[in-house]
Amino acid sequence: MKANNLTNISHIPEGFTVRKGGFANDVYQDKKHGLILKIYSEKSYYKSEISAFNSGFDYMPKFIKNGSTEGRPYIIMTSVGTGLRSFTKNDVTSLAQTLSRLHKIKKQTPRRLIEKRFRHLQQHATDIKKIIDIDIHQLIKRISRYTKSKSTSSLTHGDITLSNLRKVSGEIFLIDFDEATYSSPYFDIAKLYWSGLIPLQTLTGLKHFIHEYNKIGQTSLTLGKEAKDWIIFAGIDFWIWRVTHIRNNTNLIKQAEGRLIRYRKKYGH
Predict the structure, then answer these.
(1) Structure letter (DSSP) for residue 65
(2) Regions of the chain where pLDDT drops below 50
(3) pTM, whole model, 2 decimals?
């Protein structure tokens, strides 16, 4: 469904109340009518979510309308399913199937988005080398070769965490596509390692996930060198995001940093 033309509103519509959990954006819920109003703090978040709505992906909320309020874009969408209190081994297959369906949506995209992410990480090359002994320039060269070798990119969610999963009739739906972009499927799968979904926080867990993913996928992914490069890249990206966006929360930054260090010690790559 294509997004409607922007419609301005000057206040939060009646029936909507603040919903807890919104981090980067302001989120309101109308429980009576099953609607979500999301007001975006950055236009890039809004554009990413609109792109996902326009993709035709079914395992996500339904678009209702969009507009702007006090200069900030918003989207009203349906509220879907129920949140997961925990993610268990029994949920792995359903998430793998949903993610595989998402990644089937492909298009040719300019490289400026991934290159912007590259430049951002390269600005922190000294800290990355100091903390986890990774040459980010060499890692980016390898990631760049992988992306250049593909003629098309897949729609990726970019932030698959427990809070962004919903259960609908036994299947897993995804919400909050404000970091969605067209990239390598490996980027989404690599970020699962750092997502807080416990069954996927080991390479054995990811290998099983990829096995389930490939059952309905268009291509066969493997847990080889490319996947492992994406895993460490995604971990660095996650850590640096915390450094730059929540720099006052040293505990969360140290948590991400510690996980990277432990990953390097355990797996060595």
Answers:
(1) E
(2) 1, 4
(3) 0.91
